[in-house]
Amino acid sequence: MALTLRSTTSFLSPVDPTSKLLHKPGADDAPPSCAAVPAPPHAAAPSRRLRLVRAAAAAAPAAGLLHAGGGAGQEHGRARGGVPVYVMLPLDTVGPGGQLSRQRAVAASLMALRGAGVEGVMVDVWWGVVEREGPGRYDWEAYAELVRMVERAGLRLQAVMSFHQCGGNVGDTCNIPLPPWVLEEMSSNPDIVYTDRSGRRNPEYISLGCDTLPVLKGRTPIQVYTDYMRSFRERFRDYLGNVIAEIQVGMGPCGELRYPSYPEANGTWRFPGIGEFQCYDKYMRASLEAAAVAAGHEVWGRGGPHDAGEYKQMPEETGFFRHDGTWSTEYGQFFLEWYSGMLLEHGDRVLAAAEAVFGGTGATLSAKVAGIHWHYGTRSHAAELTAGYYNTRHRDGYAPIARMLAKRGAVLNFTCMEMKDEQQPQHASCSPEQLVRQVKAAASAAGVELAGENALERYDEAAFSQVVSTASGAGMAAFTYLRMNKTLFDGDNWRQFVSFVRAMADGGTRPALPRCDTGHSDLYVGFLDAAKERKAPEAEGAATATAAAF
């Protein structure tokens, strides 16, 4: 019979004396996936359930389905011939007060994910949490405990340097603002955040217009980001390149290299609106004025386009984005080159800092680019333009981004890998499939690795098949699934996900789960001779327990 596992017992010791956070490993140390968890004094004999879980963990690698961590001959954590799958942890895994949330659920989840063949997990390392007590005062303790948990589970970690606010965008389920001392600076100088034509301020991320100005208690934003990353490197030095496989560098709202042109907070924007340009803080305006003077058209520097419409409008409702609108004029080209160029320069500055900090650690650098697929079928690609991607019917806006990432040795992480054109509303002129193909081509031409994510939570076979199809022809470095939650571990969702992970590992085929899995189990782990005659509830699934623990 096929076996599923369940346990409500935490498999983690509060402090692991063998952890590399406490000492550097010696030659005789066991590998992370073999680390033992010592039993407390006078501990009771393990229950039948716990004995079964331990037996499954021991037997599953022999069954060939459990991942054993990265090893020799792998690239970006990739098993030869396949694409490693990571899973995003909940946004509030480390909460606003610096506490590690739902430890029992996280522990059970990591075990279930490892059993499914997942390579590792991704977590947001929130600036607003770590440096909340004041400039240069870093609290890494909750993240240190999480790294220990990931290590014990035999998984790897993608750590996102999240210099943005959580809250106000698609999928945001909690509110984690920027550090309080940064919010104080915003109050005294509102121009350090992005601003639209109406004067609406966006507190999600520091405006790139002041990247090199000492607006944060005497430090520039780039210096603040650098100091933060350097502190992370020193705290987790012994983990970088092994347990911590990747550093994704946040460079804008949602951690993406873009402007906050389509904020959902307070109903400001609604799909499929074109969004608005974010260039009206005094620092961006000063840059635009200087660029206009240099171009010999001083009048062009008096502000952004006056005919670009509002957040919720459609392209044809505006003078700028309509079929033969201002975007295609000499002025439009000047403005869009300046606006997108500022974003590219920002990305290069932040990645240069990350490269200097993490170079030589063995950790992969990556950056996330948003999959803005609505209005892709129009000539102007309005939604991409307001986000800072100068991509139109006749201009490739992703090639310069790919070249910039290649220069810094960073992976291009792109979203909307799960979407199909036929599933999108016709009035929005969406084409996620063509967009993904364009980005794949840009990455290939620049010689930069491509990784992917799904843009929205999906649990259906159609979405998984689309990702597998995309990955099979892209040479994808990794795929990160959004997101770990109770719904993922529910019944058929989990079954679909396990099949998807196996398909990615197989390089793009989607084998069915074994016929012997007649009970529609949540997690197939092979045969265990000692348990062949046993029935549930003695062999309930880890996925079922995980769903209950959330």
Automatic annotation (TrEMBL):
GO terms, molecular function: beta-amylase activity
Alphabetical UniProt keywords: Carbohydrate metabolism, Glycosidase, Hydrolase, Polysaccharide degradation
Database matches in PROSITE patterns: BETA_AMYLASE_1 (PS00506)
Positions annotated as active site in the UniProt record: 256, 453
Reactions the enzyme catalyzes: Hydrolysis of (1->4)-alpha-D-glucosidic linkages in polysaccharides so as to remove successive maltose units from the non-reducing ends of the chains
Pfam families in UniProt: Glyco_hydro_14
Annotated region described as Disordered, given as residue ranges: 14-42
EC number: 3.2.1.2
Binding site for substrate: 124, 164, 172, 368, 373, 415, 454-455, 483
PANTHER family in the cross-refs: BETA-AMYLASE 1, CHLOROPLASTIC, BETA-AMYLASE 3, CHLOROPLASTIC
Protein name listed in UniProt: Beta-amylase
